[in-house]
Structures are given as structure tokens and as C-alpha cells.
Write a structure and sequence with these properties.
The structure is a single chain. By secondary structure, the chain is an alpha+beta fold. The chain has four domains: 1-45; 60-199, no CATH class; 212-276, Orthogonal Bundle (Arc Repressor Mutant, subunit A); 285-409, no CATH class. It has helices at 16-22, 59-68, 105-111, 117-124, 133-139, 145-161, 190-211, 230-240, 246-253, 257-269, 285-308, 312-322, 327-330, 344-350, 356-386, 388-409, and strands at residues 27-32, 37-41, 48-54, 73-79, 82-89, 92-98, 169-174, 217-220, 273-276. A hairpin with a 4-residue loop joins strand 1 (27-32) and strand 2. It is globular, with a radius of gyration of 24 Å.
């Protein structure tokens, strides 16, 4: 957390990220002691009833408290990489929202195998914030109203389940009530969601160990037991057809990521499927050249700065998760390699479905944001003088990319 100093005369200087969040508005003093200060918006009628840090109070304890005492209102989480909102009604979770890209309704429907990436990208072009993406897809006949209803329930459950992987962050509880038309009737109580969420966190780690990674390639061994259920048989057929990687297999199975991951791990354990490491994918053309140019400076930056700060790569990988959209979407499931470079193949897979011009623009903007952040870290760790050569190289890289894109547009 950022430290804030109260200067003489009671002047309080807030960090820029806080100012960006609350804007220019009148605040009211809601609560204070020798250990804390709670300021609320004087314009907003919603009252802050509880606030604190995740970790000091665990996710399980929080949700159990709200359920046990039949609380109603909005519980907001600010976490590494995004934020989540859970709406409670008499202690039960009835609705949830999230800024994490993989928990957006379009991504949920895509992960359930309802349509291809191209269709999703096309529908997003019509979304302007006023008409929900799910309604656009239903109106276009891409999905049925039943598909949307089931996906919305899945979305709320997924947002909740994924909470249990976080051990740091902050939360605030206000007396906001959800819109009646958004309330979702879940099949599980909050206590059951808690138990299921904890189970999934533990078991998912075991499943991932068996399948190696979401980028790994599933290969059919030829052994097909005659006691497989219909869903497992479908998964084996997909593997036999040559599905590209685990992520695509899970999506096309239509069972949801967790359940499909469990089935795949069982097939691996029984020798029906074996896993092979995914080969490195070379990014060709102008896109490949952009990745190559940026990776050159990323490797150089990592080599110099990590000698001063061994946790540099970990810090930058965490920064990738904290980026706002659309950058967080570009770097989804991406971390720096051991040498500090970025996996161009994974990034291009995230951009799949966009027009080539949009891919190039978003790729260069995202990588520019990454090296800019590394420049700030380099200056902090090395000082202005020792980091000057590295920053100069970054400026040269940026110019090379601009020239490359400019020549392509001519």
C-alpha cells in the first residue's frame, strides 16, 4: 500500500492512482482513530460498512461472515490484475461482476465452446457499453437465451471460485443493492460455493501437474477403455482429431475449464492421452519483427536490472497481470521467460481473430507499455546515470517500430 503523509495544516496529498480513482469530489469523514482514517464520497449515498485487507481477513472468513449473518449489499475486491464485485441478498450471492478478461461473459461463452473467436470479436464491435455483449450475441442468433442464462450462472460461479486463489488485496462492503433484473438464481448456496471454490483451487493444481500446461499438446495413445462415459469419449475424439493444445481442447469440450481439466487429467492418468510440450511457435512477418525488436531490449533490460534486483522478472510479470484492458487481454496467460523475453506465440494467440492492422497496432502499443514500465524500474534500481544507456536503447527501439509500421502503411 502507498504511504500518505499529512502535512502541516492538515493537507493530505493522495497518490495519483487514488486521485484517478475517486476524481475531484467532496469527501466526508466517516470514521477515524489513532490508527485509521476513513473518507467517503459525500455525493454518493452508499455507506461504507466494512473495509480491510485480504490476507488479514481471508476470503473464506469474509464470505462465511456475510452468509452466517445474512448480510445484503455489495462486497468489492481490489486484487492483483483486476477487481470483483459480489452482490449479497440475505447472505446469499445473487450476482457478480469482474474486470478480469477471462471472466467476461463473452469469454465464458467462448470457453464453453459456443462459438469461435472470430464471432466473438465481431460481436464486440457492436458493443458500446449500453447493450450487454450477451444480449448482442443472443439477438444475432449466435446463442440461445438458454445458453445466455446458463453462461450467466456459470460466470457468477466462476468469479466466486477464482476468488480463493487470492491472498492479497483489499475489500470494501457497502449497502448497495443489485438491480432486480440482474439477480441470478444459483443452484448452490454461498456455503456450497465456498466449499467448491476451495476444492477447485486445490484440485486444479494437481490437474495442471498431470497435463503439464495449458499450452501442452494432448496426443492419443491408441488405448481406449470401453468404460469411458460419453463426455470422456468426446474428449478422446477431439484429441484424435488433432486439437492444437490443452486450452483449445478444454474449450471445445463444452464442459467448462475445470471439469474438462479434470477429465483430461484422468485420461492422462489412465494412459489414454499423453502430453507433449508445445513446440516454440515462430512469429512470422511484420508481427514477428516487432516481437523480435522488443525482445532484444527486454532481454538486455533483464540482464542488467536483475543483477541488481533478483526479483525483477517476478515484479514485471506481476505488472503484466495488473495492466488495464486492452493490454491485460494481450498479455493474458503470459509471463516473462527466464531471459526476460516475452512469448510472441502466446501473445499472437491472444490476438487471434483481429484484423492484421489491429493486431500490429495493439501488439506494438502493449509491448511499448511493457518496456516503458521496465524503464521506470531500471531508473529506480540503477539510478539515472547507469540506466541512461538502456533507456536510450529503448527510445531507439520505439523509433524502429514506428518506422516499421510507417513503412508498412505506405
Amino acid at each position: 500500500m502507498s504511504e500518505v503523509k499529512i502535512e502541516k495544516g492538515g493537507k493530505l496529498l493522495l497518490p495519483s492512482k487514488v486521485l484517478k480513482l475517486i476524481g475531484e469530489q467532496t469527501l466526508r469523514l466517516s470514521s477515524c482513530s489513532s490508527h485509521h482514517l476513513l473518507l467517503e464520497s459525500a455525493v454518493n449515498a452508499d455507506k461504507v460498512l466494512m473495509a480491510g485487507l485480504v490476507g488479514e481477513v481471508g476470503i473464506v472468513d469474509l464470505l462465511s461472515f456475510f452468509n452466517m449473518f445474512r448480510k445484503s449489499g455489495l462486497l468489492q475486491f481490489t486484487l492483483s490484475g483486476g477487481s470483483k464485485e459480489l452482490y449479497f441478498q440475505n447472505g446469499e450471492i445473487v450476482y457478480a461482476t469482474s474486470t478480469f478478461p477471462e471472466e467476461e461473459i463473452g469469454e465464458i461463452l467462448y470457453s464453453l465452446g459456443k462459438f469461435d473467436r472470430e464471432i466473438l470479436q465481431g460481436a464486440r464491435q457492436f458493443a458500446n457499453g449500453e447493450i450487454p455483449l450477451g444480449k448482442i450475441l443472443a439477438d444475432q442468433g449466435v446463442i440461445s437465451s438458454q445458453d445466455l442464462w446458463a453462461a450467466t450462472k456459470n460466470q457468477v460461479e466462476t468469479i466466486t471460485y477464482n476468488l480463493f486463489a487470492f491472498h492479497e488485496g483489499s475489500y470494501v462492503y457497502t449497502n448497495v443493492k443489485p438491480d432486480e433484473d440482474k439477480i441470478v438464481s444459483l443452484s448452490m448456496t454461498t456455503q456450497n460455493l465456498i466449499m467448491e471454490g476451495l476444492r477447485r483451487v486445490d484440485e486444479r493444481a494437481v490437474y495442471i501437474q498431470k497435463v503439464k500446461s495449458l499450452d501442452a499438446m494432448p496426443i492419443a495413445t491408441g488405448a481406449v477403455p470401453n468404460d469411458l462415459d460419453s463426455i470422456s469419449q468426446r474428449m478422446v475424439a477431439l484429441v484424435q482429431s488433432g486439437v492444437s493444445d490443452v486450452s483449445e481442447l478444454l474449450r471445445r469440450s463444452g464442459s467448462g475449464e475445470f471439469d474438462a481439466l479434470r477429465l483430461l487429467s484422468q485420461l492422462v492418468e489412465r494412459g489414454v492421452v499423453k502430453m507433449e510440450e508445445a513446440p516454440s511457435v515462430a512469429v512470422e512477418g511484420v508481427l514477428g519483427e516487432v516481437v523480435k525488436i522488443f525482445n532484444g531490449v527486454l532481454v538486455a533490460m533483464h540482464s542488467v536490472v536483475s543483477a541488481k534486483n533478483p526479483r525483477f522478472r517476478e515484479e514485471i510479470s506481476r505488472f503484466l497481470r495488473d495492466l488495464p484492458q486492452p493490454f491485460s487481454y494481450v498479455f493474458r496467460q503470459t509471463a516473462l521467460k527466464e531471459d526476460g523475453s516475452i512469448d510472441g506465440g502466446r501473445i499472437l494467440a491472444n490476438l487471434d481473430g483481429l484484423e492484421e492492422g489491429d493486431k500490429l497496432r495493439l501488439l506494438s502499443e502493449s509491448l511499448s507499455e511493457l518496456v516503458y514500465m521496465e524503464c521506470i524500474a531500471a531508473r529506480r534500481e540503477l539510478g539515472a546515470t547507469d540506466s541512461a544507456d538502456l533507456i536510450k536503447r529503448v527510445q531507439e527501439v520505439s523509433q524502429r517500430v514506428r518506422n516499421l509500421i510507417g513503412n508498412r502503411d505506405e
